């Protein structure tokens, strides 16, 4: 038996609540019941299961009662290396904490196989080491961008390949325009409003209503939604702050490099829409007219399905897509069906400044070899949605310093070592990671606040990660420490460094931790003990 679901949009819940446990339990219940009716069952997760874009971590980090900007080069459209990989790893660790039990319960069902097909919101799962480790942990098998299951007569793909704003140059690896729209404009709206309201938690009542954007599709319709919603806010000050926050987010979006990759005519249309949306005196009719220029024919996906080579194959019963969030089952002229598995449908109501959210339903396609046609099912839920803290602290990532030493290329060593160092320091009592930086621009990878032996080690520490280490590297870090007015530096390297070089580094207030040192500590507590010992 084959079961297909898509577009769950599980997030790290930094900006909006996600699928509630009751809804996930209902899917598990449905799969367990179906598995009891067949010898084997494959559950195909048809893209946008994991939403890595809807996260505040691309834009800011929270320190006490303030939000600090993340470096501009930490975005999904930059090189998939540390520190981008670090952000992906952090988001996925939170997801593992929220949803790990759900996937564990699915994997325990006898004769059930979990297969994931990439979408546009979970693209980075496919292109990062953290993503691949994440899937292994969840016992989910990655597939290609399209699946042909001839035994069941099913051809499936997420479908974003037909959306010009969510694929670039027909290359799944490149970050599309949609990534920038979500992060700079939509995530950016949350961040800009939080700043203006002087809050750091996005579930605060003055900001939480923005979570309802999850239910607006396509995203280009969000300016219309925002105009209507802002008028309903009971607090006039929050109304004005929301408008001002949107203007700032739009300006950031239009200034980002991905926006500039649009063709001149597309850029003109989007600019007109966004400029009009910044003027909250614009009529909704004017905005709607501009939106029509961007709208696609709702029948397009059925047309794409009919044009698939698989649709002309007599053995194929149905062509399955997700992506559009519009559930549908339609007979095609060729004799097979077009099915869209929709999304995990949410609804939002704003009343007296309070947002009420519900998970209404989800859709699943069930196909059996013996059945004449696919069974498209709607599962009704009507379950409240709320922000949910992680059940427990995220487990340490399954990358280690040993992994870095085994990596073949220096770039791979550095990326893996960087993630290991980040997680080591994050788990070290007395040390707090304050920010990640572009090592090319700053000369170091991160800055930590240190409370251990401050008189000797310093309070603010610049941390540099190196696959190999040479004396000029130490001199370079010493110069950058002076420029940045940072107390001291730590260098982590997988190479073996002589005692002579380490002594020289100490004179510049730089501590070097090499392959031999790394063997002496494997946890944050172990590293803290080393610092306290004074060795």
List the helices and strands and how they pair.
Layout: E1 2-5, H1 21-35, E2 41-46, E3 60-63, E4 66-69, H2 84-108, E5 112-117, H3 123-127, H4 129-138, E6 141-142, E7 146-149, E8 154-157, H5 177-196, H6 205-208, H7 222-232, H8 236-255, H9 264-278, H10 284-292, H11 300-307, E9 318-321, E10 328-331, E11 337-340, E12 345-351, E13 354-367, E14 375-385, H12 401-406, H13 410-426, E15 431-436, H14 439-442, E16 446-450, H15 454-457, E17 460-466, H16 471-484, E18 488-493, H17 499-507, E19 510-513, H18 515-518, H19 524-533
Parallel strand pairs: 1-2, 2-5, 5-6, 8-9, 9-11, 17-18, 18-19
Antiparallel strand pairs: 1-13, 3-4, 7-8, 10-11, 12-13, 13-14, 15-16, 16-17
Structure in words:
With 535 residues, this protein is α/β, with parallel strands linked by helices. The chain folds into two domains: 2-385, no CATH class; 401-533, 3-Layer(aba) Sandwich (Trna Endonuclease, Chain: A, domain 1). The protein contains 19 helices and 19 strands. Strands 1, 2, 5, 6, 12, 13 and 14 form a seven-stranded mixed sheet that branches. It has a five-stranded mixed sheet with strand order 7-8-9-11-10, covered by helices on one side. A five-stranded mixed sheet has the order 15-16-17-18-19, with helices on both faces. It is globular and about 80 Å long. The termini are far apart.
Number of strands: 19
- Any idea what the radius of gyration is? 25 Å
How would you classify the helix and strand content by structural class?
alpha/beta
Distance between the termini: 61 Å
What is the helix fraction of residues, given as a range? 25-40%
**Count of individual helical segments:** 19
Q: For the report, how would you describe the main beta sheet?
A: 7 strands, mixed
Poorly predicted segments: 390-399
């Amino acid at each position: 038996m084959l079961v297909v679901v898509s577009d769950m949009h599980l997030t790290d819940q930094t900006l909006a609540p996600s699928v509630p446990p009751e809804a996930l339990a209902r899917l598990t219940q449905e799969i367990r019941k179906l598995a009891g009716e067949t010898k084997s069952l494959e559950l195909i997760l048809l893209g946008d299961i994991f939403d890595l874009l809807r996260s505040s971590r691309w834009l800011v980090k929270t320190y006490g009662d303030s939000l600090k900007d993340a470096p501009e080069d930490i975005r999904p459209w930059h090189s998939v290396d540390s520190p981008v990989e670090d952000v992906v790893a952090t988001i996925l660790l939170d997801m593992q904490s929220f949803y790990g039990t759900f996937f564990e319960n699915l994997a325990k069902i006898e004769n059930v196989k979990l297969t994931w097909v990439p979408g546009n919101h979970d693209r980075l799962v496919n292109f990062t080491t953290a993503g691949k480790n994440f899937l292994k942990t969840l016992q989910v098998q990655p597939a290609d961008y399209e699946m042909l299951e001839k035994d069941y007569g099913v051809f499936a793909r997420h479908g974003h390949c037909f959306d010009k704003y969510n694929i670039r140059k027909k290359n799944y690896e490149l970050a599309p325009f949609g990534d920038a729209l979500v992060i700079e404009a939509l995530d950016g709206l949350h961040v800009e409003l939080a700043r203006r309201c002087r809050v750091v938690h996005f579930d605060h009542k003055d900001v939480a209503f923005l979570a309802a954007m999850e239910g607006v599709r396509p995203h280009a319709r969000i300016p219309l939604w925002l105009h209507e919603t802002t008028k309903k806010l009971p607090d006039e000050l929050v109304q004005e702050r929301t408008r001002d926050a949107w203007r700032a987010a739009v300006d950031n979006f239009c200034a980002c490099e991905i926006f500039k990759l649009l063709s001149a005519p597309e850029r003109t249309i989007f600019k007109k829409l966004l400029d009009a949306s910044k003027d909250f005196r614009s009529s909704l009719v004017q905005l709607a007219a501009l939106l029509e220029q961007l709208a696609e024919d709702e029948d397009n996906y059925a047309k794409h399905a009919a044009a698939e080579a698989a649709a002309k194959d007599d053995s194929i019963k149905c062509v399955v897509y997700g992506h559009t969030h519009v559930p549908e089952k339609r007979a095609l002229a060729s004799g097979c069906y077009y099915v869209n598995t929709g999304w995990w449908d949410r609804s939002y109501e704003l009343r007296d400044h309070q947002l009420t959210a519900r998970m209404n339903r989800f859709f699943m396609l069930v196909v059996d070899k013996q059945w004449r046609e696919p069974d498209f099912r709607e599962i009704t839920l009507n379950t409240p949605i709320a922000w949910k803290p992680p059940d427990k602290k995220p487990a340490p990532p399954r990358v280690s310093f040993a992994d870095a030493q085994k990596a073949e290329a220096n770039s791979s060593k550095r990326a893996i070592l960087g993630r290991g160092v980040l997680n080591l320091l994050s788990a070290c009592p007395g040390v707090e990671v304050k920010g990640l930086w572009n090592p090319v621009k700053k000369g170091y990878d991160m800055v930590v606040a240190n409370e251990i032996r401050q008189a000797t080690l310093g309070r603010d520490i610049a941390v540099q990660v190196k696959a190999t280490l040479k004396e000029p590297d130490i001199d370079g870090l010493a110069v950058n420490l002076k420029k940045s007015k940072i107390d001291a530096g730590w260098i982590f390297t997988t190479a073996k460094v002589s005692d002579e070089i380490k002594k020289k580094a100490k004179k510049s207030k730089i501590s070097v931790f090499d392959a031999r040192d790394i063997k002496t500590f494997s946890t944050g507590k172990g590293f803290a003990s080393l610092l306290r010992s004074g060795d």
